[in-house]
Amino acid sequence: MPNIEITEECRALIESAIEPPTGRRLPNGNWLIPINEITLERLQQMRLRGETISDCIIRVMIVTLHKHGLQ
User: What CA dihedral angle connects 52, 57, 59 and 64, to 10 degrees?
Assistant: First the structure.
């Protein structure tokens, strides 16, 4: 299972919408999160040029929450 590094802001958004992701905090304040291969592949496909994984996750979550209504 691969790991991705995400920002604190990205982790907080995930936690507010779903549940806190498992992982460990890095010295730089980011988080190392385990993720399955299929999800990683999908994120790589959705990523825009120059976009970080965290930016991609935040963008996708905001669009999804907007489409389904904020709860």
Answer: 170
